Structure formats: C-alpha cells, structure tokens
Amino acid sequence: xxxxxxxLESTCDETGxxxxxxxxxxxxxxxxxxxxxxxFGGIVPEVASRAHLEAFVPTVEEALSRAxxxxxxxxxxxxxxxxxxxxxxxxxxxxAKALSLALGRPLYGVNHVIGHAAVDExxxxxxxxxxxxxxxxxxxxxxxxxxxxxxDVVELGHTLxxxxxxxxxxxxxxxxxxxxxxxxxDRLAREGDPQAIPFPRALTSAKAMQTHAYxxxxxxxxxxxxxxIEAREEAGQDIPVADVAASxxxxxxxxLVDKTIAACRAHDVDTLVIGGGFSANSQLRELATxxxxxxxxxxxxxxxxxxxDNGAMIAAxxxxxxxxxxAPSRLDIGVDSSMPL
Length: 341
Ligand code: KG4
Ligand code: ZN
Description:
This protein is an alpha/beta fold. It has 2 domains: 4-119 and 310-323, Nucleotidyltransferase, domain 5, CATH 3.30.420.40; 129-304, 2-Layer Sandwich (Nucleotidyltransferase, domain 5), CATH 3.30.420. Helix content is 46%, strand content 19%. It is built from 13 helices and 10 strands. It has helices at 34-38, 45-67, 86-103, 112-118, 121-124, 164-174, 182-189, 206-212, 219-234, 241-266, 282-295, 304-307, 311-323; strands spanning 4-9, 14-21, 24-32, 76-82, 107-111, 131-136, 141-148, 152-158, 271-275, 298-300. It has a 5-stranded mixed sheet, sandwiched between helices. A 5-stranded mixed sheet has the order 8-7-6-9-10, sandwiched between helices. The radius of gyration is 20 Å and the shape is globular. The structure holds 5'-O-[(R)-(carboxyoxy)(hydroxy)phosphoryl]adenosine and zinc ion. It is an enzyme of class 2 (transferase). One of its GO terms (cellular component) is cytoplasm.
C-alpha cells in the first residue's frame, strides 16, 4: 500500500492539515486567521504566528478524525518549509519535526509554491511528464515547468514586484472596496468594459521579452490605475469603477495567459495547471480557457478550495516525493522565507 502522508501548511495565515495516500485525499482541514487581519488591511505576521500555534493541534486532530486514522498510522510528515512568513513557517516546521521525532517517521520539508501545482494530482490524477504550472495568489506569481513534480521543477519566471492577487488587492483599495479586494474587483469587472481604458501590459515589449519573457510585473499597472483615477478626480469627473476594474483585470489576465501560452509553445508542453488562490479570478479563467482551447492546450484548474492555501497541497507533494523514494529531510532543517525552487 502507498504511504499515508500527513501534510502540514503554515506559510501565511492558513493552518492546514491533510491526509493523502497516493493521490487520494482522505481529509483536509484548514483554519484561517484572515478575519483577525482584515481590520489591519493586511496580514500581521505576529498575529498569524500566534494563530498557527493555537490552531495547530486541533487542526491535525480534526484531520485524523475525519480520515478515520490515528497518528500511529501516519507513514510520513510533509511540511511547507518555505517560502512564507518566517514566524508562521517556524510554527509548522517545529511541530512537524516534533511529530517526526515522536513517531519515528520521515520528515519531508517541501516548497509551498510547488505544492500549489502538486495539489492538482488529487483532482486530475498524476501529471503528464511535462506540464506547465502557473501559480498565482496574493503572495506569488510563478511560471513553472514541471518535468517531475517531486524531483524536477524549473521556475521559468516570476513576478518582479507585486503578485497578481496583491495587485488586485491594491486596486481594490484605490476603488475603496473591502480587504481583500481581489474578489470585489473581479465582481465589478464583470459589469465593465475591458477595453474602456488601455492600461499597460508590462514586460511584453520585444526588448523586455529578450530578458524577461516569462517574468511578470504588476506594480506599474497599479500605479497607472492610480494615476488614471487621480487625473479624473482632479478634472472633477466621475470614476467609472466597473470600467476601471474590467480594464485593469483584462491587463492582468492578458499578460498571465499570453506568457504562459508562449512558454507552453516554447517548451512543447500541452498540459497547463493553474493553481493558487488567484485562480478563482473569472477574467483569468475565461481567457485561459479560451486561448488554451485555441492553442490545443489541456488546461486543468482544481476546485477553488484546493487552490487557496491548505494542507492537501503539501500532503500531495509530500506523497509524490515519498513515492519517488526521495531521501527525507534532516531534522535540523530550517525555514526559508524566500525559498527558491
Ligand atoms: O492563495 P490565496 O488564498 O492566499 C495567498 O495569497 O497565499 O490567494 C488570495 C489572493 C488575494 O490577493 C485575493 O484578493 C486574490 O487572491 N483573489 C482574487 C480572487 N479571489 C482571490 N483576485 C481576483 N479575483 C478573484 N476572484
Ligand atoms: Zn500559497
């Protein structure tokens, strides 16, 4: 029988515990401290760390109980050891080490960003040998060439400044929407004209493509939106909020999808996985579905509950790593807030 892997996630504001055997998800429990951060308009690292400390044991106990197994049945412990907030990571990794030591089971420290791609295996089954993965959330925007999810993932590009979700949250603030603004901007955008305002598409000029073909940049776009709003306000004109949201959202989706499809073509890949909380974005979903269909690319987007941070993604990656026979991590591993792939 394949090993039973307990996956633990604590990179940001979600405490996650999940049990996976092979590519079968047996339980997935998530506790979030987002409500505690909302009134600050952003994640407060110390509040997040303390919330992990309090939520950790109940979350693991609930996952074991839902899967109908005990701690003694666990064959291996996978934990996200980066990237993320140092204090949050430390709580999860310390707890994972304690479990590994107490149970005498191997520890697998894994990369959270790769986990966002790996989770798709629980939904659509094992990935084809070469798969492209676009991981987009409030914290990351990365394009990954997945040769083997457990052992060979190459980062082709990433954002040079803001993540896509972060840019949406900032534009949400400019439009006076509640935090996090992403889903609100998405909703407004559906009522507006995406071609109303020609916002810039960063790093798409021929010159930028030479050095940053698969990199992204969204902070200039956010500034362009801010300037456009300011100019209208100074002129005493109304702000057509739905058109601003739609034009901004179109600029983000356009760049994400264009560069991803170009990467698929350049690397001769015909399967694309989109993961991370931003995959909920309707403009990205629509454009990716439409353009991938034209390009003959099979696009896989897991249901949204698997795309936001959770233990299932870490257990899925840990399970792949254990199945490949990769050596476990040492018990003195640290955490890495900016962990490379
Ligand atoms: O993965 P996630 O839940 O948390 C991390 O950032 O790790 O991603 C949440 C981010 C937030 O920035 C949120 O505003 C954004 O994704 N987001 C959206 C949508 N749903 C979530 N942005 C635009 N449209 C959405 N529908
Ligand atoms: Zn994440």
